[in-house]
Every structure is written in structure tokens, then in C-alpha cells.
Design goal:
Structural class: alpha/beta
CATH superfamily: Glutaredoxin
Number of helices: 6
Shape: globular
Number of domains: 1
Strand content: 15-25%
Helix content: 25-40%
Radius of gyration: 16 Å
Largest sheet: 7 strands, mixed
Number of strands: 7
Order of helices and strands: EEEHEHEHHHEEH
Length: 187
């Protein structure tokens, strides 16, 4: 499958679970951002990812969902997530970042069954599938303070989410690149 990869984050206004509308660029203005796209609120793998990231309260992490503002706010409260959630019920950001709908073999395969068991055994539970698109695949993007997308992860199947530790490591790497003085070599 061909996916066009963005070089820069789109210049758009997004709506947070609080109901506040902000420029996406406001979210990465001061420090690199991990923009984590969720499949849907009932997805056990998305719930696992949120649980893994819950303790990283000083990192700049924002989730994107297809849920309406009220649904996103309720989900965030139920998941006890300190990270905000962008409400994108029309999938505008999903489309702009090149995320796609999965096929049946990306939803149901040996990996998703194995990972589903692992997620369940680690205490995560799936929920009801809300009226969003259950076929949408997830993704994670690291955006630096210049709006450049410096890392992209497109989920290969429903269970292919980056671990919380991997996301935080990519954010720290992005932060270290920004704090390191860049010098041009001249020959």
C-alpha cells in the first residue's frame, strides 16, 4: 500500500476534548509533539497505549480520535489520561496525515489475536465500538517545533501501536536534536 508521507504538519485548527479550538501548531510551538492517532475508543490496543503513556505527564503527547468532543472528554476521564484528545469525527487529520482504513486481514490475524491476549493479560479491556470507523488504522507522528514531521509510524494492523516507551524515546530524541546547536560544515 502506498502512503504519501508529509514533511510538515498541516496548518489546521483542531478541537480538543475540552471544547477549545487551537491551531495544531500551538501544540508543538514550545516543544516537540507526539501526535498519537487512535483507532477508536473501544480498541483494546489504543486503551493499552493510553495506559502506557498515562504516567508521562511532562511529555508533550496529544491523542487524536474520531470521537465527538463529548465522547473524547468522557473517554479521557474514564481512561484517567492527563494527555488531551483532539476530536476529529470527520477524520480530517487522519486523512491529512495519510492514515488509512485497514482490510479484514489487518484486523483479524495471528498477530492481533496474540497481542489482544497480551493486552488483556496486562489488565486492559476493550470497550464497545463507538459509531466511528472501526476499520481505521492508527499511527504516531513526532513533530518538531518547526512543524516538521521527523518521525512517522503507520500501523500495519490493528495491534501495531508503538509502545509508550518507544514514543517517549522518540520525543526525547527530538528534544535533544532541538537543544543541540546545529553547525553547517563548509568545505
Amino acid at each position: 500500500m502506498y502512503v504519501e508521507v508529509l514533511v510538515r504538519a498541516p496548518l489546521v485548527v483542531v478541537t480538543l476534548d475540552s471544547g477549545e479550538s487551537v491551531d495544531l501548531s500551538h501544540l508543538y510551538k514550545e516543544k516537540p509533539l507526539a501526535l498519537v492517532f487512535l483507532r477508536h475508543f473501544g480498541c483494546i490496543f489504543c486503551r493499552e497505549q493510553i495506559t502506557q503513556l498515562r504516567n508521562f505527564t511532562t511529555e508533550n503527547i496529544v491523542f487524536v480520535s474520531m470521537g465527538k468532543v463529548e465522547e473524547a472528554a468522557t473517554f479521557r476521564a474514564n481512561m484517567e489520561s492527563p494527555q488531551p484528545i483532539i476530536s476529529d469525527p470527520l477524520k480530517t487529520l487522519y486523512d491529512q496525515f495519510g492514515l488509512r482504513r485497514g482490510q479484514l486481514n489487518q484486523m483479524l490475524n495471528p498477530n492481533t489475536f496474540k497481542r489482544g491476549m497480551q493486552a488483556t493479560l496486562s489488565g486492559n479491556r476493550g470497550g464497545l465500538i463507538p459509531p466511528s470507523d472501526p476499520w481505521m488504522l492508527a499511527g504516531t507522528f513526532i513533530i518538531n517545533t518547526n512543524g516538521e514531521i521527523i518521525f512517522s509510524h503507520f500501523s500495519r494492523d490493528a495491534a501495531d501501536n508503538m509502545s509508550g516507551e518507544s514514543i517517549v524515546a522518540k520525543l526525547k530524541e527530538a528534544e535533544s536534536l532541538e537543544s543541540t546547536p546545529q553547525t553547517a560544515s563548509v568545505e
